[in-house]
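Tokens as discussed.
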């Protein structure tokens, strides 16, 4: 839907509400990060605005962005803070010195009063507590929608910061596990990113009607919009490129890709592993490549803007998702798989439950055993030696993303959730 059509639709919705004496809902999203670049939050804001709701996002500002800005039709309210200070406070969350929840609850109260917020939409588990605490101090408790981007308690077992000094002595994973159960039961509604996570919360005793799946599917209109950067295409045109894009951390399994290079470099002499992104174990990965003497086969290109990501995917031959299989990765799904699919690239993914289900269902690639470089190497060699089949996998993936695994489809659940809330509030 074009922007002009969206504007007409929204104006029509507002006129209907005026005639029917229905107040347009003000949704207050709480995000403990900068807004720009968070694809999921941006997609949600656009979909809710297009559906006729008012959306306000309270988020951080690490640099010099405007304190108040209109983006995608929503109002972005930024809190200035250094990334260092934020990380220090967040590390103490759910501890005796719980500065983070206290800080956020005060800001949320001010935010609610100033913008007359009707519903609090908390992104990620660690923001639930601040929403609940703010609600206690408000005269009228607001519905809390908890948007669970991942299984955070399980993710902590994989994150480097929670397993190395000093984090391992500050972060209590058992306490987070208990907190998760308490908070998901207390939230009025839950949003999850994949069906497997919905089943998990149902098994925890959460009523099915309280859980809405808004998956990390690709927003084709936004992702495909940037022009192709042919400098990137030409840079790798002589290589057989295996691409990974996203964050770097222990649970991402990127070491598996590097460990596989000595097993495949003779059979794939033009191989280039292109790693787009950065993270906590970047230096470890570079050291591993040096130790295995495969640095010439690896290109660490660093963090890239969302506008350039499309071109890096286009420059690749196959795309990898080597996440380590765990309770965490069995209950989440990364955007990247659908970015790869919509651009017609065969996917080689580890056997995390959602990844395996989707890749096998769509026949868009191959699955290897998590953490097993020999398994990955054998699948990669097959794709290299069978390019016709590899191209067919890419074509099947693109078709699946166009027909099913796209944001237009999954965003209907998000809109339905807020329509239900709106109807209950206007009774």
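Sequence:
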């Amino acid at each position: 839907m074009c922007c002009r059509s969206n504007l007409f639709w929204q104006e029509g919705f507002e006129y209907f509400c005026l005639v029917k004496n229905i107040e347009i809902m003000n949704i207050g999203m709480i995000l403990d990060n900068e807004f720009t670049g968070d694809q999921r939050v941006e997609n949600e804001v656009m979909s809710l605005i297009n559906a006729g709701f008012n959306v306000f996002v309270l988020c951080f500002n690490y640099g010099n962005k405007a304190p108040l800005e209109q983006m995608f039709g929503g109002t972005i309210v930024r809190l200035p803070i250094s990334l260092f200070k934020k990380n220090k406070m967040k590390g103490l969350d759910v501890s005796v010195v719980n500065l983070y929840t206290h800080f956020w609850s005060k800001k949320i109260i001010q935010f609610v009063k100033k913008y007359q917020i009707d519903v609090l939409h908390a992104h990620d588990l660690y923001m639930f507590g601040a929403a609940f605490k703010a609600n206690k101090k408000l005269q009228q408790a607001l519905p809390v929608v908890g948007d669970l981007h991942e299984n955070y308690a399980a993710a902590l077992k994989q994150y480097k910061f929670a397993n190395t000094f000093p984090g391992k002595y500050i972060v209590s994973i058992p306490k987070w596990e208990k907190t998760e159960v308490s908070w998901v039961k207390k939230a009025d509604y839950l949003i999850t990113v994949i069906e497997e996570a919905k089943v998990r919360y149902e098994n925890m005793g959460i009523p099915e009607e309280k859980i809405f799946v808004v998956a990390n599917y690709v927003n084709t209109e936004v992702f495909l919009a940037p022009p192709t950067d042919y400098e990137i295409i030409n840079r790798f045109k002589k290589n057989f490129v295996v691409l990974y894009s996203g964050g770097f951390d222990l649970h991402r399994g990127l070491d598996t890709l590097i460990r596989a290079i000595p097993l495949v470099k003779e059979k794939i002499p033009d191989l280039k592993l292109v790693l787009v992104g950065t993270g906590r174990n970047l230096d470890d990965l570079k050291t591993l490549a040096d130790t295995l003497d495969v640095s010439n086969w690896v290109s660490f290109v660093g963090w890239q803007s969302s506008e350039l990501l499309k071109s890096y995917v286009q420059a690749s031959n196959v795309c990898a998702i080597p996440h380590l299989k765990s309770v965490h990765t069995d209950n989440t799904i990364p955007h990247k798989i659908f970015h790869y699919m919509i651009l017609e690239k065969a996917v080689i993914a580890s056997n995390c439950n959602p990844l395996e289900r989707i890749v096998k269902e769509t026949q868009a690639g191959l699955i290897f055993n998590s953490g097993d470089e020999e398994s990955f190497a054998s699948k990669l060699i097959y794709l290299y030696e069978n390019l016709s089949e590899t191209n067919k996998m890419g074509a099947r993936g693109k078709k699946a993303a166009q027909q099913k695994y796209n944001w237009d489809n999954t965003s209907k659940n998000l809109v339905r959730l807020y329509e239900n809330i709106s109807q209950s509030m206007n009774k």
